[in-house]
Each structure stands twice: as C-alpha cells, then as structure tokens.
Amino acid sequence: MNFSQKMLRDDALQGKVIVVTGGGSGLGRAMTQYFLELGAQVAITSRDLSKLTHTASELESLTGGTCLPLQCDVRHNEEVENMLQQVLKAFGKVDVLLNNAAGNFISPTERLSANAFDTIIDIVLKGTKNCTLAFGKHWIDSKQSSATVLNIVTTYAWTGSAYVVPSATAKAGVLAMTRSLAVEWAKYGIRTNAIAPGPFPTKGAWDRLLPGDLAQKFNLAKKVPLKRVGDHQELANLAAYLVSDFSAYINGEVIVIDGGEWLKGAGQFNMLEAIPEELWDQLESMIKAKKNK
Ligand code: HXC
Ligand code: NAP
Fold first, then answer.
1. Res. 32: pLDDT tops 90
2. Is the CB of 167 under 6 A from ligand 1?
3. Of 1, 108, 146, 260, which sits with the fewest C-beta atoms within 10 Å of its C-beta?
4. Is the CB of 199 under 6 A from ligand 2?
5. Alpha-carbon distance 111 to 207, whole Å?
6. What digits encode the pLDDT tens for the residues 264-290?
7. CB 171 within 8 A of CB 216
8. pLDDT at 292 > cutoff 70
9. Ligand 2 center to residue 266 CA distance, Å?
10. Digit-coded pLDDT (tens) for 129-148
11. Which ligand has an atom closest to residue 201 CA?
C-alpha cells in the first residue's frame, strides 16, 4: 500500500450531497472526484461555467457519479443564495459545504492597490462567509439533523507569511470562523472543521505563487522534512474522512497535511539538520569539555 491509494470504503459518502466551491480545478477537482467515487452527489461551483461543465462531464465519465456544474462567484451574496437554491432544486437537500475557492498572488505588500488587497479578502474571507452563512441559515431554518462545513485554509493562517499578506490575513479569518462556528452551531448538528495543506502542486497555485523559473529556484519539496510535495489523493482521503460520518466527533479541528513543513520553519534549532554526523562527535566533546571545567 502507498500514500496515493484510496482510503475509505466504497459507500462511505453514499446519500450525501456535497457542494465544492472552486471545484472545477486543482484540489477542489481532486476532492470532488473522490467524493463521487465514494457515492456522493456533488455540485461544483466557480466563476467559469465552461470549465466547470468540462470538469463535471469528465468526472461523471470517470466515476459514474452525478456532478452538477453551477456558476457562482462567491464574492456576490446573491449568486451564493441562487447557487444554494439550484442545489436544493437538483438534489432536494445539501449535507456538506466545502469552502475551497480562493484567490492569491505573490507581491510585496506595499505594491498592492487597495483593490488588489480587497480582491483576495473578498474571495477568501467574504466568499467563505457568504457561503457559510447562506448554508448555515438554511440548515438551521430547515432543522436538518446534521451538516458539515469544511474549510480549506493554509499553514500560514496562524504563522502569517510575507509576500502573500492578503491571503494570510483572509485565511486567518477563515480559521477563526471555523473554530467559532464549531462551538456556536454544534447545537444545530453542524460540524465545522478545516484542513491546512502544505505544498500540493496545482496549476492555479503554482502559476501565481511560483511563476517563471521560481518553481525550480525554490523547490518546495526541499522545505518539507518528508522531502516531497503532497499527492492530491492524500488530501482527498483526509477531506472525504472529515465530511463523512466516520468523523462525527471531530468538530472545530484544523488538520495540517504538510509533511512537517511549517514546523520545520518554526523550531529554533531545526537548522542543525545541516550538521554532518562527524561534526556531532566534535560538538559533543566541546560541550562536555565545557561542563567538566
Ligand atoms: C499586484 C495584482 C496582481 C499581482 C492582480 N492584481 N494580480 N496586483 N500583483 N500579481 C491586482 C489588479 O491590478 C487589480 O487591482 C486587483 O488585483 C484585481 O485584479 P483582477 O485581475 O481584476 O481580479 P480578478 O479578475 O477578480 O482575479 C482575481 C485574482 C486571480 C485573485 C487576482 O489571480 C484569480 O482569479 N485567482 C483565482 C485562482 C487562484 O488564485 N488560485 C490560487 C489559490 S492558491 P487594480 O487596483 O489594478 O484594480 C492558494 C495557496 C496557498 O491560496 C499556499 C500554497 C503553498
Ligand atoms: P486553484 O485550482 O486555482 O483553485 C482555486 C479555485 O477557486 C478555482 O477553481 C477558481 O475557479 C475558484 N475561484 C477563484 N475565485 C473565485 C470566486 N470569486 N468565486 C468562486 N470561485 C472562485 O488552486 P488550488 O491550489 O487547487 O487551491 C484550492 C484551495 O487549496 C484554495 O483554498 C487554496 O488556498 C488551498 N491551498 C492550496 C495549496 C496548494 O499547494 N495548492 C496549499 C494550501 C492551501 P474560477 O477561476 O473558475 O472561478
């Protein structure tokens, strides 16, 4: 067995209706494919309907499942409300909201216009808020017995990160929303969790965060203690578990899936990994010699 194999049993999501924002590409697409394989019906949403339609038809042929493409810019609340109504019309209910849509680019912060900063906050933080509020109100008003919100954040939601400040600011807000609602809405049977992925190569992220030859210059795998980037199926396995009933007691959690990347940057002496074995012998004798004086 290896890490790119499928984890859950075939009927793990049978009967569930799942909405994946930003489901037409990248990680959203990978998670959608696995949800379909596990028996869920999935609506994928984003700004680009032709891309969504193409993805939905490819995934239906690959999995034999039902995938509904719906245009919805998460920045606009009326589009979100309309998307929810279309999902309910098509499937009669919705069980899971996966807030995956995001926008990002690298830039020194002082080069950003107010509108550039707003664009990222509007997609990531306000878009997640628009979807969560619309779906949450629906679940509460209709007295649905259980539902799940899963948010995709990043590890810099708590560390912060230079050069992606709007994204870090917005993802930190999504993390706070995750933990707050996990407590407030648990009484309605709504679980709220998050996943914080490390580097998982996708065209959307790599074109904007590592353009040109930056991907070669800053090989992200080298920053990861496990010395590799993530495999899309590994993330899909975790997401499927968190939206399934197997995780019914997990609420308010943010699960990091990054091969140890963020902790490597955090530990004060982690740079000592560069020291070769022979040098450790010398260092040990030097330290012991000091103690014996
Ligand atoms: C400075 C920039 C810029 C750049 C855009 N702007 N790109 N400023 N540097 N590189 C400015 C524009 O000049 C404009 O401001 C404002 O931002 C809005 O730009 P638009 O192009 O009009 O916006 P829009 O068409 O809505 O596009 C949104 C976008 C785009 C976020 C800018 O990149 C996009 O559509 N992204 C969606 C997918 C995505 O980003 N995926 C990656 C997620 S990765 P002015 O003032 O001129 O009007 C991720 C991973 C994290 O989150 C961790 C990875 C390890
Ligand atoms: P991606 O393929 O670019 O995914 C982003 C998706 O969001 C796209 O499908 C895009 O579709 C959609 N989107 C953007 N703006 C939107 C809007 N206003 N309304 C609705 N949908 C919108 O990149 P990805 O790497 O798969 O990222 C997926 C998620 O993982 C994001 O939350 C990202 O922050 C997170 N993440 C990724 C990594 C990584 O290494 N890849 C690491 C940490 C976190 P349209 O353009 O069609 O609208």
1. yes
2. yes
3. 1
4. yes
5. 19
6. 999 999 999 999 999 999 999 999 998
7. no
8. no
9. 26
10. 999 999 999 999 999 999 99
11. 2
